[in-house]
Amino acid sequence: MDKPSNRPVDWNTLVQDNEKKLYRAALAILGDPHEAEDAVQDAFLRFLERSPRDLEYPNAWLMRVLVNGCKSRLRLRWRRVEPLPETLPVPGPEEREELEEFYSLPPEDRTILHLFYYEGYSTEEIAGMLRLQPSSVRSRLTRARQKLRKLLDNPQ
């Protein structure tokens, strides 16, 4: 995670250090660039509203708020998953197929895979963010890998 600090959090540094990481996580969970941007803004707004300036791990707090916010967005009735947008910068058709398979996974699986592989969090850290037991995170990670492997081996 991030380094503990006893001094107040600098807003500009916090945003610069976290905006891309939070956006990637939100995009992986939600599958929509516009919703991902909104989710990141909501996470930063919650930080400002709650003003937890003396947090020991502000980056982890932000990620936790973001993941919970994304889960709330997924529960909304009007939300629907659409195909991967054409505007995403994907170099080739093979990678595009892999991304579409990834986005076809349930949001819970995408969340676990993204946090573990793309953000580099340990299963213990993910468990803390998602309020799960580390053993649950490991088993979900295993199942998500198996689902993704099956999708990639047997494309529709």
Write up this protein.
This protein has helices at residues 11-30, 33-50, 58-75, 93-104, 107-118, 123-130, 134-153. It is mainly α and 156 residues long. The protein has one domain (11-153): PhyR, sigma-like (SL) domain (Butyryl-CoA Dehydrogenase, subunit A, domain 3, Up-down Bundle). The chain starts with 10 loop residues before the first helix and ends with a helix. The relative contact order is 0.13. The mean pLDDT is 80.
Task: Show the helix and strand layout.
Elements: H1 11-30, H2 33-50, H3 58-75, H4 93-104, H5 107-118, H6 123-130, H7 134-153
Helix pairs in contact: 1-2, 1-3, 1-5, 2-3, 5-7, 6-7
Give the CA-CA distance, first to last residue.
38 Å
Q: How much of the polypeptide forms β-strand, as a percent range?
A: under 5%
Summarize the biggest pleated sheet. Answer: none
Number of helices: 7
Write out the CATH superfamily name.
Answer: PhyR, sigma-like (SL) domain
Number of domains: 1
CATH topology category name = Butyryl-CoA Dehydrogenase, subunit A, domain 3
- On the 0 to 100 scale, the average pLDDT is 80
CATH architecture: Up-down Bundle
What is the N-to-C order of secondary-structure elements (H for helix, E for strand)? Answer: HHHHHHH
- The structure class reads mainly alpha
Radius of gyration: 16 Å
The helical percent reads 55-70%
> What is the class in the CATH system?
Mainly Alpha
Number of strand segments: 0
Residue stretches low in confidence (pLDDT < 50, at least 5 long) are none
Shape: globular
